[in-house]
């Protein structure tokens, strides 16, 4: 009687095991466990709307003070978190074993990061941002000021609270619902290196903005950062699909600005609620891989008419190529539909470049003729679209020339030689006849 | 003075060659005609290859070899059959012709094989 009970208990215990594997994995790219480092524990309540929206989407948030000595992102070589949110702009040094190198290693291993800076941003935060490709204004007391795009406000008159609506044009990054109301921003601006192709401006400042210390007189030299070169919020997508968001304002995440109404100066539109909540929520969905994460599986090629993948092709063969691309929807893999996935048949340069056609269910296929050149080729799919993870697939395949019995039986260009040889034979017969019977 | 002398020398040379050639036996003249035919065919093939390119090379070689081989065998027949040739005085011409036929058979076998 005890045995079946015991077996039942064991079975129950075993069924808990899958829950222990609920962290980030290749099959489920959305992050699960996020470490949030705060300057000040009151941020938990002053920014509660942001945190609760994250929790409602299923994330496990671990709040710690930035100088808590128990901070550790790595234990026994494994990362304990999938994402890191640094809402600690004024922290000079993190507690525990985390430092700039640690944060960069975290990102380099494919994990995501949100960094918020502020008017009193420390060198630590500035360094982290600089390593990610974002350069904050070197003047430590400078903030972004905009005298024609500020938020009309009863309390603040120095135009440091700006209403920005210059968003990046991407449905993947910001969601397909248009953000109607401008986003309220109060903080420091940064610039991006134009040579860096992986960093993008998610929210740019208007052309009339500039970065300066609002309480001191304007110097005779023009400010180093001005106009649309100033980026207020930037995102970086690394080649290993790690996503980083760097914002110059911590207040942008706060409940106060989420709930505030906004009226941009010079415009008559008054919005009941600023675009902050929608902007931050949608952007965090992208950062934590709930959107825009692609995977490609089943890269196959075969000769037309066959179903197995051959180990070698011959020149002038007809072949078919197919690949399946899926997109993570936040909870499952759905087919990714796109008209511009291309495949190259590449050896030092692409001999064949074809756009793949799709059947709507994630299968992309095409067929083409192997070029008249032999060698070792690669099927290459390089797909880089704004906001999506980049796909870089390749499969090597050798291509051989004709075997000696694969040519046409009688080659047209060789007909004169055939003719000459037969004429020699005929000549031999005629000659012998004539020679023998000659008197 | 020198020019007319050279041109008349050339003319005289031509004349003597022609008359000497006319004195050769008929059967040798037949062999010579056959040799010329073979060489001309070889030259035509080489000119064709120069224009069109050497694909397929094996067919080109086979065609040219058939012409050149035929010419070579015919030349050796002519040597052996010529009565003025002291070296082959004791060789019956029938034997020379039989050798010629056998060698041609082998040549054409090889040519057909290599022609592709």
TrEMBL record, chain B:
GO BP, sorted A to Z: protein N-linked glycosylation
InterPro entries for the chain: DAD/Ost2
Membrane topology: Multi-pass membrane protein
UniProt xrefs under Pfam families: DAD
Quaternary state and interactors: Component of the oligosaccharyltransferase (OST) complex.
Similarity comment text for this entry: Belongs to the DAD/OST2 family.
Protein's UniProt name: Dolichyl-diphosphooligosaccharide--protein glycosyltransferase subunit DAD1
Natural source organism: Salvia splendens
């Amino acid at each position: 009687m005890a045995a079946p009970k015991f077996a039942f208990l064991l079975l129950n215990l075993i069924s808990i095991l899958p829950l222990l594997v609920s962290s980030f994995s290749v099959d489920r790219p959305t992050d699960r466990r996020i470490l949030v480092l705060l300057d000040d524990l009151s941020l938990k309540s002053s920014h509660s709307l942001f945190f609760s929206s994250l929790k409602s989407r299923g994330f496990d948030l671990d709040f710690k003070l930035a100088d808590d000595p128990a901070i550790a992102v790595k234990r026994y070589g494994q990362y304990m978190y999938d994402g890191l949110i640094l809402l600690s702009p004024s922290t000079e040094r993190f507690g525990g074993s985390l430092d700039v190198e640690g944060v960069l290693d975290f990102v380099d291993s494919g994990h995501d990061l949100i960094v918020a800076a502020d008017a009193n941003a420390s060198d630590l935060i500035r360094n982290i941002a600089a390593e990610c490709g974002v350069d904050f204004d070197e003047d430590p007391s400078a903030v972004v000021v905009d005298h024609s795009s500020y938020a009309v406000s009863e309390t603040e008159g120095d135009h440091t609270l700006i209403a920005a609506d210059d968003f990046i044009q991407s449905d993947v990054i910001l969601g397909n619902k248009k953000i109607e109301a401008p986003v309220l921003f109060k903080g420091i601006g940064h610039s991006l290196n134009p040579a860096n192709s992986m960093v993008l401006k998610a929210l740019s400042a208007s052309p009339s903005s500039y970065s300066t210390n609002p309480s001191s007189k304007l110097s005779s030299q023009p400010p180093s950062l001005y106009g649309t070169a100033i980026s207020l919020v930037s995102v970086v997508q690394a080649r290993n699909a790690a996503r980083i968001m760097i914002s110059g304002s911590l207040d942008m995440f706060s409940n106060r600005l989420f709930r505030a109404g906004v009226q941009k100066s010079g415009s008559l539109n008054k919005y009941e609620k600023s675009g902050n909540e929608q902007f931050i929520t949608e952007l965090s969905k992208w950062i934590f891989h709930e959107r825009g994460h692609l995977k490609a599986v089943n890269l196959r090629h075969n000769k037309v008419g066959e179903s197995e993948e051959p180990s070698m092709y011959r020149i002038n063969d007809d072949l078919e190529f197919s690949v399946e691309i899926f997109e993570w929807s936040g909870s499952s893999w759905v087919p990714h539909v796109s008209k511009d996935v291309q495949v190259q048949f590449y050896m030092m340069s692409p001999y064949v470049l074809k756009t793949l056609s799709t059947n709507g269910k994630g299968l992309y296929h095409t067929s083409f003729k192997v070029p008249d050149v032999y060698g070792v080729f690669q099927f290459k799919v390089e797909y880089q679209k704004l906001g999506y993870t980049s796909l870089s697939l390749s499969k090597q395949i050798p291509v051989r020339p004709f075997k000696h019995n694969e040519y046409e039986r009688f080659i047209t260009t060789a007909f004169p030689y055939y003719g000459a040889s037969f004429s020699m034979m005929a000549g031999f017969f005629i000659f012998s006849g004539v020679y023998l019977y000659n008197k | 003075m020198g020019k007319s002398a050279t041109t008349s020398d050339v003319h005289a040379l031509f004349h003597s060659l022609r008359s000497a050639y006319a004195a050769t036996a008929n059967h040798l003249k037949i062999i010579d005609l056959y040799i010329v035919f073979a060489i001309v065919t070889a030259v035509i093939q080489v000119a064709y290859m120069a224009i069109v390119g050497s694909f397929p090379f094996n067919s080109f070689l086979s065609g040219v070899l058939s012409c050149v081989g035929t010419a070579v065998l015919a030349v050796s027949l002519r040597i052996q059959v010529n009565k003025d040739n002291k070296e082959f005085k004791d060789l019956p011409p029938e034997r020379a012709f039989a050798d010629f036929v056998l060698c041609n058979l082998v040549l054409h076998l090889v040519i057909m094989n290599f022609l592709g």
